[in-house]
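Feature request, filed as a ticket because there's no other form

It would be nice if the structure record came with a short human-readable summary line next to the tokens. Right now we just get the raw output. Example of a typical job, pasted below so the devs can see what we mean:
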Amino acid sequence: MSRLKCFAVSLALLAFGALSQAANAPNPVALVIHGGAGVMPASEMTPEREAAYREGLSTALDAGYAVLDRGGSSLDAVTVAVKILEDNPLFNAGKGAVLTHKGEAEMDASIMEGKQLRAGSIAGVTHVKNPIELARLVMEKSPHVMLIGPGAEEFALEQGVTLMPSSYFVTPRRQEQLQRAIEKESKEKPPGTGTVGAVAVDREGNIAAATSTGGMTNKRHGRVGDSPIIGAGTYANNASCAVSATGYGEYFIRSVVAHDICALVEYKKMPLEVAVRTVIHEKLPKLGGDGGVIAIDARGRTALDFSSEGMFRGQRRSDGKREILIYRDR
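Raw output as currently delivered:
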């Protein structure tokens, strides 16, 4: 065999080896979380409070990512991350959820996986310690997608979910916020409230999304926002992306924000960041809404965008990127 032929064969073998190695390379994993849009103005954020928020976000982010890092599923990762945020009274979900006009916490949550498009959601629960856990059980242990109020809590009892007295969820900070809202006769949520959520992709290339909230301060008893509505506040499809939203829920429901972003990716072939920007900065404002979303696709590409002054958020990826942010530049 001539030297030229030997050289050509060597090149072919090297190329084949590189392709084989690439084919066998593990799928990139990533986790993105949010703790709500519409944070307090930067001028009013004290260093102590900012440090507390960053610590809470970091704890949830690292715990959820650890699941992915050891080969766990995206569903497990988003569940772990959201449960930690629900247990942190700084965030509007679980303990520390904002209060209704009657002074009670009514919580909503949903979860969805992108491989088979399974989803579960609950709304209007008042005693479930971790609403995201119950939403997942609705998905995995019932033939339904959504359960609400007493029916959801009866199901929680059957499944052995931890229930707490209503006083567990009420904090002095949320009581003060409610009182201020009542005095102003306002139904708008005060600064610093929102929702929590997570999206992730695992080594199998499967994506998932989860969202949990206490809703709006001073809301009417029985009000349900976008967080438990599949396609509005939460959506996941391996063919497009996974999305968790935060903002004024009524507008997100009317705009079907989470599904709209995924549809733009799947059908119009928009890059993920462009699809998110189109919905959050062009479509939603036309109705008068604002807020933000986190999104991820099966290749580990992420998007974190919002139209409010800030959004508690963080991401960690297998390429080494890790960040916790509150405002545009920090």
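Something like this underneath would help us a lot:
The first strand starts at residue 30 and ends at 37.
The domain at 26-94+110-118+193-327 is CATH 3.60.20.30 (Glutamine Phosphoribosylpyrophosphate, subunit 1, domain 1).
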